[in-house]
Amino acid sequence: MELFPIHLLFIVVLMNRYILGPFLRRLKGKRFERVDDTYRPRVAIVVPLFNEGQGIYHTVRALLEQDYPRELLEIIVVDDCSRDDSVAWANKAAEGHPNVRVMSNPENMGKRKGINRGVRAAVDAEIIVSVDSDVVVDKGAVRQLIRRFVHPNVAAVGGRTFVTNRHQNWMTRMIEIKFHFAQQWLKDLERSFRQVMCLSGCLTAYRRHVLLQLEPILEARAIAGIPIKYGEDRFLTRQIVKHDYETVYTLDAFCFTAAPSTLAGYFSQQLRWRRSNLVDLLCGLSHAWRLHPVITVHYVSQLALLLAYPLVIVHNLLNGEFWDILAFHFLVIGLLGFIYRMETRHLPEDRRVPGASFLPMALLMPVTYALFTPLALLTLDSGSWETRGSPTTAPADSPTPAKLSTHSAGEGNPS
């Protein structure tokens, strides 16, 4: 296997993500992101909870400050049998706020089934906003999500995620740039055709009747008879698109979370995302042809790259040509680091990181693909929710929950 085919495939994916998408966004102008400020539905924010400790307190308190009519807003926390003091912190945050409910599952059910339980409980809501328990949501997020439901066929609207600990070390600086491209650029192509294929559970709004319609499919999700608890965000979004609804993404609704700061945390996250990507891309082939042709090409090219890339890396290693492909990685990653620096030069220093911080990705990318793609293929039937350990104590001035997330921004980010 020569380098050229994989380079060509890589270039096709890059052109789709970094050139065609932004071009269409600029071409469509104001039509790219229409809004309706007259739409004011009843909203229920559902927060699945597991072993979050004090972090859930910060999450709920931020949700209580939303710039949205209080009488139209309800917050439902669904605890999935946490083994720490998460429920106590959730109840503390709910004190004095009758629009906050804390529910406990009778057994550990997984994130998706916990959310479904919250959706069923929100009988008066028209829109469900899913928020992860380890994020702090901007006060304007709900309003920005709601105003994007401009047509009855828009079934879901997702928001973006910022890295709060971006300056902690080289890992978090690298992830900050990765998030920048994942959210500023990579979704532009899918946004152009209102067929965004993955909306993160960190912050996404759904029409409740669509979630109820899809609930049997979501509840029955399994591989080889084993219930699957990872990749819920990506699976749900794909099912929404499959049923001919539109999915939208906006940069104006956002939340904050901490990124993994160690290699162990990052690798754990990547393995989980790799399983999710493989399962979703493979299963989606059965109906990918129904997407817009441009999105179909993009979809299939991503799967082809995901499967071929590890083989090329191993091939180059065995033939002593690894340095060739590594040099190619450094060239592409270095160029992206320069683009990031140019795009963020107007931001205050505390809101950006040096463009060179992206360079470690040139080495981590082939390593994670070579190791985790085959490992993910061998563990697709994992039933794990990749649950958290015990929480740590957050600094007094930290604006985010105590825990460093290994799953946030979920499946919406590139691996």
Topology:
Layout: H1 3-28, E1 43-49, H2 55-63, E2 73-79, H3 86-94, E3 100-104, H4 111-121, E4 127-131, E5 136-137, H5 141-146, E6 154-163, H6 170-184, H7 188-192, E7 203-207, H8 208-219, E8 222-223, E9 226-227, H9 232-242, E10 246-257, H10 263-283, H11 293-318, H12 322-343, H13 361-378
Parallel strand pairs: 1-2, 1-4, 2-3, 6-10
Antiparallel strand pairs: 4-7, 5-10, 6-7, 8-9
- Provide the gyration radius in Å: 21 Å
| Fraction of residues in H or I helices | 40-55%
The main sheet comes to:
8 strands, mixed
How would you spell out the order of helices and strands?
HEHEHEHEEHEHHEHEEHEHHHH
Average pLDDT works out at 83
Whole-Å distance between the termini?
23 Å
Strand order of the largest sheet: 3-2-1-4-7-6-10-5
Which structural class best describes the helix and strand composition?
alpha/beta
Transmembrane segments: 6-24, 296-316, 322-340, 361-380
Biased composition (Low complexity): 390-402
Organism: Corallococcus soli
Pfam family, one: Glyco_tranf_2_3
Characterization of this structure:
The protein has helices spanning 3-28, 55-63, 86-94, 111-121, 141-146, 170-184, 188-192, 208-219, 232-242, 263-283, 293-318, 322-343, 361-378; strands at residues 43-49, 73-79, 100-104, 127-131, 136-137, 154-163, 203-207, 222-223, 226-227, 246-257. With 415 residues, it is of the alpha/beta class. It starts with a helix and ends in a 37-residue tail after the last helix.
